Amino acid sequence: MNSFKRKKFQSSFRSSLWWMYAPAVLLVCIFILYPFGKGIFISFTNWNGFSQTFDYIGLDQYKRMLADSDTWLVVKNTLIYGIGSTLFQNIVGLLYALLLNQSIKMKAFTRTVVYLPVIISPLIMGYIWYFFFAYQGGALNDVLLLLGLDKINSLGNPDMNIWIIVFVNTYQFVGIAMIIYLAGLQSIPRDFYEAAQIDGSTPWQQFKNITLPLLMPSITINMVINIIGGLKLFDIVIALTGGGPGNASQSMSTFMYDLYFSRQDAGYAATQGVLMAIIILILSITALVFFKRKEVEA
Amino acid sequence: MVYESIRKKRLLTGLATAISIVHLIPFYILITTSLKAKGDFSSKWIFPSNWSWSNFQEAWIMADLGNALWNTTIITFVSALLLIFIGSMAAYPLARRKTKLNRFIFMLFIAIMVIPPLTALVPLYQLVVDIGMMNTHEIAILNNVAAYISLTVFLYSGFIRSTIPKELEEAARIDGAGTLAIFFRVVFPLLKPVTASILIISCVFIWNDYQFAIFFLQAEEVQTLTVALSGFFGQNSNNLNLVAAAAIVAMLPMVLLFLFLQKYFIKGLSSGSIKG
Lengths: 298, 276
What we know:
With 298 residues, chain A is mainly α.
């Protein structure tokens, strides 16, 4: 480096005020980047999680993962949790926002009620819904018995419990989608609708041609945060089914937890962690790019 | 025309009422469950005739909720304070000094937001064991701060860039103020709105955290509310009345805070709106 370049570098380094963000960078390096990098390394070993020694076994864990039918079951569940809750939260959230944007009496109360679960721990929310869906003495079965029907073991039934988890996740977080859509609706100028009414357009036409295009930025935010939240689902699964029966309702997060803590299969858990990071990365970036592009068109 | 709009309004109000009722069902079930005595197997839909407050007392003692409440409070508030202090300070140069290094660091924080914390779980657990910080408040705090620092930096730097006029800082510099003085005396006080949002978001996330707590706070004396509750549920899954009472105690502080500060909660959580 010649002296001119060095000076330029030194002054740019000094003016970066690096010491102001040093603590934040240090924390992130120690508690996120280093473990994340080491996790990738561990995914190439057969480490059991506590022994001092472990062997580098190349791609064996990855081969095992691809051949493991549980992997595909868990990935499928995780996609249902992620994509399913994203769809429901956005559709229901948008409908609620459209309704509660009108000047009606119950507006403020309903908003509060819909929003309340957002601040409650997802684990507790899971337990609360457990009281509803439980086989013995659950509120749902009381209704079925009253109607002369048989009790159902909805949480123990692999075809149903996945969708119950999607439902509970939607119930819990639909408030966030609603609030973001409400904020978006309120930023649309009123005159647009007035002009459209003078032109004699129907409410549906107004929704399709004014509301939806101008709401696109809110849709992008909601899609991305909901998909990331849904793919990371952990607490609600633990509270409602514990991932069972078997691995039937396991999400990638709960599966990893199980592999590491219950089955002492740390190397394999790390491999599943890498897969989870890849899936979240691909889906969240796809959603971001897809909806961002729509925004420009609008 | 007028009658029609009145009828429409009534219909919409009815719809909003119906939505409220449906959304309140789980809370109703929770309350009836928590108030029923042990032997009472009546339907959860029926309100108990004799309220059995003893469930709350028993759950409080059995699950050691007082201790858990204390641990959760300490961890939440120290984490949130550190997030605000470290995060705002980090955001300032990243928003103001566009050197190559700073651009790289900013991109790094953005990239980290996409990494799911659990994917680093296995080595993180090992690291915590190695440095001997298992079952300490400190490790929970450090983990929480690391987990939400990127979001904090992102929100702060966006706010600084879009709303704080550079001229203020230049004026202070001409008056002879150093960088730290400018930041803490001039810039930081102007960050109040975004600080409030970050305070609310991080408090909600950290208060409700279960993922980190279940890994790193397993010893009884450091347990947070969620961990205490999950253990309690494991031992009492046949006695849901007790679990319901414990759940109410665990969520009450946040619910009360929410009902008092609703407006700020809704604004705060939607302006940052990224779920944990």
